[in-house]
Amino acid sequence: MSNGRNIGRGRKNLESVVTGLEQLTLNSIRKVLPDRAIEQACRSAGYVYRRRTLTPIVTVLHMILAAIWPEESFQASWQVLWDQVVSHCPGVKGQSPSSGSVAKARARLPLSMWERLFAWLSHQAQHRAQAVADWRGHRVVLLDGTSVSMSDIPALQKTFGGSHGSHGRSRYPLARLVTLSLAKTMTVLSYALGPFKKDETVLVHPLLKDLQNGDLLIADRHFAGAHFYARYIAGGLEFLTRVHQRLKISRLKPLWRICRSVRVINARIPRCRTIFGCG
User: Which domain holds residue 191?
Assistant: First the structure.
């Protein structure tokens, strides 16, 4: 559909437009994310759709383009895709779906479809990264948190909230994001998203089940402390963290010193010998 009208004069022309959009869009990315993966994610999520110009394949690829081209709007990135179709099908010039139609196509895709698509991509990326993921027999995994901003939409503001500073409440909604990723390829293994006021140390707990026995986990001081170390050990993990800001290192008796700013102590956790870096 285009502004409520059929593109072209019939089904045959619609098929040529859909085929053009699906076949001409981000071919380099489609080598990693094939059409069958998107279609399978839709089936697994129970999402049934009819044949139209903006198929799930087109919509997903458009959102990927918009994500890797953040300096432009969704509409600008859509125009790039449509211009490719026009170059191969001049007869559809001026018949691009409206920005409202593109937005509705995004909204039709259920969250469960995206979750399944992420799981599929993460599995494929981990498989491809196996040759470079290990260090001395340990898979090296990074644990970190950040925040992400979103459009100024009341529903998002209500769900995620935002920061409060000396200048008042932030204009845009903010969400907390915690990720586990492979160190050498930055492949995201899993993630947790929550309201801005929710602490990263709470969001991380469900993610730890995605780690494997023998993984070397590297994290900052937010994920340090005896309760975290106990969880890591129980999961069969090796780990390296920054020193927690409340830990008084001067009170700990070192077993030996590696250098002036690094010392090894025997923590009061079974089978735990910890390296603390003071610098």
Answer: 136-247
Tokens representing 24 are 């001409």
Q: Give 212-215's long-range contacts (Cβ < 8 A, gap of 24+).
A: 212/139, 212/236, 213/237, 214/137, 214/138, 214/139, 214/238, 215/138, 215/139, 215/140, 215/141
pLDDT attached to residue 65: 83
For the chain, the straight-line distance linking the first and the last C-alpha, in angstroms and rounded, comes to 61
Q: Is the pLDDT of residue 5 over 60?
A: no
Query: Exposure string (b/e) for 75-109, b if CB count within 10 Å is 16 or more?
Result: eebbeebbebbbeebeebeebbbeeebbeebeeeb
In a domain, 150, yes or no: yes
Other residues' Cβ atoms within 10 Å of the Cβ of residue 58: 24
Q: Are 132 and 140 in contact (CB under 8 A)?
A: no
Instruction: Give a yes or no: residue 1 inside a domain.
Output: no
Cα separation of 4 and 261, whole Å?
A: 68
Does the reported pTM lie above 0.90?
A: no
On whether both 146 and 84 belong to a single domain, the answer is: no
How many domains in the chain? 2
Domain CATH number, residue 178:
3.90.350.10
* Helix extents (H) in the chain: 11-24, 27-30, 35-44, 56-68, 74-88, 99-108, 111-133, 154-160, 200-203, 226-234
E strand or H helix at 95: none
Distance between CA 203 and CA 178 in Å, rounded?
7
The tens digit of pLDDT for each residue in 95-148 reads 788 888 999 999 999 999 999 999 999 999 999 888 888 999 999 999 999 999
| pLDDT of the residue at 130 | 87
Lowest mean pLDDT among 28-37, 81-90, 105-114, 146-155: 81-90
Query: Are the beta carbons of 102 and 54 closer than 8 angstroms?
Result: yes
